[in-house]
Amino acid sequence: MPDNEAIAQTRPLAVDPAQEYSRQPADLPPGMVPNNTRPSTGGSHELTNPAEDIAGGAVQGKAGGAAASDGWCVTKATDIYINSMDYLNSNITLGWERNLHHFHGEHGPATPYNRRDWKRARTFRPKTRANVKAQEAAHAAAAFATQDYLDIKAEDPTNEQQVISAAVNKALLQKRLELVPWNWFITCQGAYQDTKVYGVCISHQYWRYETVKEVVPEFDDQNRPIMAPVGKDGAMLPMGSEKDRTTFDMPVVDLIAPECFLFDPMCDWRNPAQTSPYLAYLMPLYAGDVLKRMETPDPKTGQPLWRKYPLQQIVAASRENVDNRTRRAREGYRRVDPTTQKASDEFAMVWAHLNIMREGGVDVAWWTLGTELVLTTPVPLTEMYPHLQPGERPFVVGFSTIEAHRNYPDGDVAQIAPLQEEINSVANQRLDNVRLVLNKRYFIRRGSQMDLDALMRNVPGGGVMTNDPAKDVEVVNTPDVTSSAYQEQDRLAQDLDDLVGGFGQASIAAGGKQMDRAGSMDVLQGAAGAVQDYSIKIFFETWMQPVLRQLVRLEQMYETDHTVLAIAAKRTPLWQRFGTDLVTDEILQQGLSVTINVGIGNTDPVKRVQKLTFGIAQVVQLPDMQRRIKSLEVADEIFGALGYKDASRFFMNDQELVTHMKTTPPPPPPPEIAVKMQELAQRKAEADQRDKRETTQAQLDHQWRMQQVRTSEELGHLKNMTQETIADAKNKTQRDLGAAKEGNRLAEVNLKRADGAHERAAKAAEPKPKPGKGFPPK
Fold first, then answer.
1. 83 near 267, Cβ under 8 Å?
2. 3-state DSSP call for residue 444?
3. pTM of the full predicted structure?
4. What sign does the dihedral 263-268-273-275 (CA atoms) show?
5. How many Å apart are CA 446 and CA 458, to the nearest integer?
6. Are 604 and 533 in contact (CB under 8 A)?
7. What is the mean pLDDT of each run of 10 residues along the chain (778 residues)?
8. How far apart are the two ends of the chain, measured CA to CA in Å?
9. Could you give the 3-state DSSP secondary structure of residue 748?
């Protein structure tokens, strides 16, 4: 990882304004877990009664508060330790001790095989270790077959900023997990192994930030170091400036031994680390490291991280206060306990306790050395770990077996322990029988003169001196072991495999009839794989997902490495859409959800690929789904199931494909293909000529038809015009005739009118007779 230099107790070196982030190394929690605490300075967090003051929100110290606070801290730390350790020693430790013996291929402490006077066979059949190895291999195949096992999604898929933040955080976390020196793969495998041996696994997530002071020499114009007198003797020493060099700046997941993590046995069995009213993390440290933390100043306050105590008092507090039976069983009784080995007082092993207690709905945390010396003043847990959400703790307890309402479930090793012991018993009795068959027992007459040493040695080709072989020695014949002993062992092995999801030769032999009906071993192997997948799924839900969620929040709050941030940005739509690697707090700190892209049925690589291809073949038949397939991701998943990280070794990505097509000419075809291509080219030329002739003929035909159509149109138009002219003439003639007839009619009418007028005029001109002369009066 790149080193970041910073001036002592100040902000680090100035970064490019275009790359300015609000999270700087000086803003991070200092160092390892002890560095995240606050010293007792009598300042704003000096509490006289932490249980009341923190729950009530008090922030001011009181006179004599330090002594009262120390007494409360020691009392509570002692109560937490005694209550939890008594429960462990009474109920859990013996089972863990037996599990560790079986895991190491040794007989448990309560078996007669460990007696020194045991002269019979004491072989241990390592079925336990074999099954745990198979489970670990299945977990590695399911979780780490591909790099894309982690999935981070936006809580609001319609929010573009959250979608980009999810992609950036995913790429950032994956890149970080590739760079961390504590090896994420080994940590996960160790956690899964703990769930099998102890039943639980416990981890601690935090951000580790540490610096060391360095002197940067000053040089003159001639590139020579500037010397100055120092001390009374005036010795010339080079001048320089003191700066801080960052040695650790990364997220850390520490796997904790189960006996070093104490919680209330009556808490919620589904999530002990978050629901227990108290926790105690027992961290082993060298006394010299404790002294270093007592002298190292906090980058924010300038005060020592831990209270100062003399070395003798620190070593005196190193009395054995941790469950050494479990640790000794884990190390093996043939080894010396490493916690008791020291070359000097500075290398003496002491135990620092991180105590967490919930008071008034607030988690209060403080450090003690054992249960005697108070190292820090109690502060709210969210102040010691700022990345935590309210009510959350930086510890995760996971398991791979569900036992409802039981906080310490039995792992596979504990579940198969009775069967393992029965298998050992059958195997050892069979070995005893074989040894008796090969090396007979004898009835020897008391007082007989016989070479007993030669008789006991039973060397092939040797002889035994005796006075009366017929009466002095009687050979006891032991019947040879029958096949029932082997059958019994096979059945016990099958029962053991069925319990933990194993699949061995005993299962194959015992399932012969079922395989005859099924036609293959798929039925038996599928049942075993289902049990393994079930354990892996429980482990993902209880440990891996919660741990990754906390790692994402650590990255969101504390990440300052510009190189890692830029690489993450270039792997995401942020670079593709905006062409920039500027990752800001607003982009990182969005609401996200973390899941694992591994489901049940992923331990068998062949079936995994078959299921994937079957699912894709079914989905592409849906409307508009074929063009939506992400071919590169499908290839990565298939090659990941086959044991490769991804398909990048075998297939080019988009950029490489474009470059290859531009720079690489196509390879020459084989001779037979070249001949075929020439034939096709000749046929194409003939077809082109024929097409050209046909096109020309079609054009001529088209032109002739168009001319014919135009001529027909013109004749029709002329005919129509002629018909229209004739029709107009007929209409005019008819109108003229009608007008003439109308004129004649009007003339006749006028003539009749004129005649009528003449008649009336004539009548009017006739003389009228006078009255009285024969005419009646008018």
1. no
2. strand
3. 0.70
4. negative
5. 20
6. no
7. 34 35 43 37 42 48 51 92 91 93 90 87 91 90 75 76 78 85 93 96 92 79 78 71 81 94 93 94 91 80 82 78 76 68 75 92 92 91 89 94 93 92 90 85 81 80 80 81 83 83 57 46 54 89 92 86 70 56 64 68 63 78 80 73 66 74 76 85 90 91 91 90 90 89 88 86 77 54
8. 152
9. helix
